[in-house]
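Hi R.,

Here's the chain you asked about this morning:
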Amino acid sequence: MKTFRYILITGAIITSTLQIYAQDQVEALTFSERFPQSDARAMGAGNAFGAVGANLICSSINPGSLALYKKSEFSFSLGFLSNNVSGNYLGTLASDHRYALDLPQVGLAVTINNTKNGEAVKDGWLSYTLSGTINRMNSFQTNRYFEGLNTKSSVLYHYAETANGTLYKNLSLNNVGGLAWDTYLIDTTAKDPNHNTYVPIDTSKIRNFYQQNSIKTRGSNYDINIAFAGNYSDKVFIGAAISFPTIKYNETRDFTETNKNENPASYISSDYSRELDISGTGVQVSFGIVVKPIKFIRIGGSIQSPTYYSLSGKYSQVMNSQLVGNSYTQSSSGEMEFNFTAPFRATGSLAFIAGKYGFLAVDYEFVDYSQGYYSSNSYQYISENNQIQNIYTAASNLRFGGELKLDIFALRAGYGMYGSPYKSITAPVGADASAQTLSFGVGMRENNYFIDFAYQQLKTKKFYLPYSLSQNTMEKYNVDEVTGNIDDIKQNTFLVTFGVKF
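And the predicted structure, written out as tokens:
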């Protein structure tokens, strides 16, 4: 039985968007991860600046260490990013890349020295620092592509599974099952009197489907910070910050499947494309402290509250089918309003300061990715939030860095280890999303001006599954497994920071 709906009911599409297309655990991780890429001096030394201080990145790590400023400072950075992704899907190697220029940081820190009778005080509150900064904490700039011949399954199985259980008259065009129905890629079974059980248009036991998948993401996560810190007797440095993190995320994806069987009975090819655009702002508060028990040692600690985001998005999707003798196209679009809570973070820091010769430092950061949480007035997100709690866990991140000063010049190096966000039982084999960063930098400071250069490479492996099938569907079509792709990601970032002290 087959009918085609030519008239779209716009109101139904908009009001059902959240029920049909909700955010998932993949985006929850994307919106929770943070890899600072804003200031060249800090990035060159591995961003291990929680206790080193006197740098604008500190407003996003430990606002207490801003009190280590002795002078006021203004700086801004320019960045170049190169992202290379390679993978092996069904035995076929493929790769893609992305280049981007941006402005990752701009900020001002004003330090006011406390005086009494016209002279600087020697004890008590020596100085205060007020700062306003914009720091980039993550970049979403990525191009991914993979292709291969699938002899085990077809995406049509997924479309049929998505539609199962819904009367054909009630299928939504916001769901891939509804789009597949209206492009004649699936049909109800002849033995189903209720017309709510579906099968793909091609049920051949000979599977030769060439699949191509392209995913492009754009956007960034920035911190907009206002911080205040105080220096007490040059021994204790305390600060607090209120932050307004921003998210701008755009994703376009296209999945094409071509039937490579000779003389196909009906199904030739299908193509599904979707564009998703999400943006919004959050709010977060943080507190930090640095103590200096002796002159060359600094110990720091900070807590960042969960970030409460208010986000809006819109999406559009198109399904095309090419059948023997006919081709069909159907589309839908919608909008959504939802909230997302990113998990809190706690950071402990230790720095050894060698006076005018430089420093060695380490930061330890704790973050529990299972605490990510979606909410909305029109959708409960029960399944999605359960997935976040079941899949993700707490992770430990370590950042190491050092600086060697040579008169007006400085050499820097850093290394970072970011733990896997997955529970051990749910981590994809060989792609647990843990990450490593390696960075180098140089700088020059003369009089009250400075310029810094830095390079960082971030390496990680992430698993991508183009579509999923239930156990019942796999048994029905004798499918052993659904093959995914492991993305080998290498992100190279170059920064230059210009600044002046006054």
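The radius of gyration is 27 Å.

Let me know if you need anything else.
M.
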